[in-house]
Design a protein that fits this description.
By secondary structure, the chain is an alpha/beta fold. The protein is about 30% helix and about 20% strand. The protein has a single domain, classed as 3-Layer(aba) Sandwich (Rossmann fold). Helix 3 crosses helix 4 (about 100-110).
Length: about 150
Amino acid sequence: MQLILWRHAEAEDGVPDAARALTAKGRRQAEAVARWLEARLGRDARILVSPAVRAQQTAAPLGRPFETVAAIAPGGDAAQALEAAGWPDAPGTVLLVGHQPALGRVASRLLFGVEQDFGIRKGGVVWIGRRRGAEERAVLKAAITPEML
């Protein structure tokens, strides 16, 4: 299984939190990362997106169908995100478009074996795969920020 964690791009301040839209910079970030992902994602990738407007707008430039999943909404936790993704047994690739701190905690839990705060920049991606063998474990395949693209 491949698990891609994509933090929503830069969003406006305001309330209600779930209605916050992307800024102009955030739209550019989402478009750049979507181009990077599109060149690497298989056609069968499953895309799960938080119901928050900023996450929906981050995923939109991919131009692919996605599922809106409440388990990865703001305030969700790492366990909920992993369950929604089907880690570690779901087939293929799953892309989660969500929020901090949950996505960072997922990355920390899988990569370091301990769930703790782990920063993912706005619009950033952490791509985690599974290494099979005597010791099956998660491995970091890529980590990017929009500024790198």
